[in-house]
Amino acid sequence: MISDQVLHLHRDQVRAEWVDEYDHMNLAYYVLVCDQATYEFWEMINNHQGIEHRQGAEYAVVETHVNYLAEVRLGAPLLVTTQLLEFDEKRFRIFHELHQTDRNYLAATNEVLALGFDLNERGVMNFKPSVQQSLSTIHSQHKKLALPRNAGRSIRILKA
Q: Taking the domains of the chain in order of start, what are their residue ranges?
C-alpha cells in the first residue's frame, strides 16, 4: 500500500531502452528513476527555482543503497515516493520507494545521502536558509512516520 503521508514527486514508465536481456528493467534504471525523484525533491525544497537562480548552491549525492525487491517489465507504470529521514545544515538523508502502480507492489527502495555542494567553489557547503527551512517543514511531518524497514541497511551475508 502506498502511503499518502510521504512525498509523491516522480512518476515514470518502464521504457524499451531500460529493458535488458532478462526482459525486465535493468538494475541501473532503478537507480536512474530514483535519482530523478531525488532531483525533484531538490527542486521542491528550493521552491522550484531553477538552477539558474540558485547561484551555484546545489547538492551532490555521496551515498546510495538500493534494494531490488521485485522486477518491473516494459511499460509498467512507476511511482517513487520519498521520505525525509534526517537532515542537518549541509546533509540530508532521504528514502525512496519505487512502486509498480498498476499491480500495486513495491519493486525497490533507494536510500540516499546528499550534501550541499557549491558549484562555484566545487566543494561542500551549508544549505541556504530557505532550503534549511523547507527541510525543517518536511521533516516536522516525516519524523512522525515509522522508519522504513530497509533504511540503514548494509550489505552482508548472515551466517546461520
A: 7-142
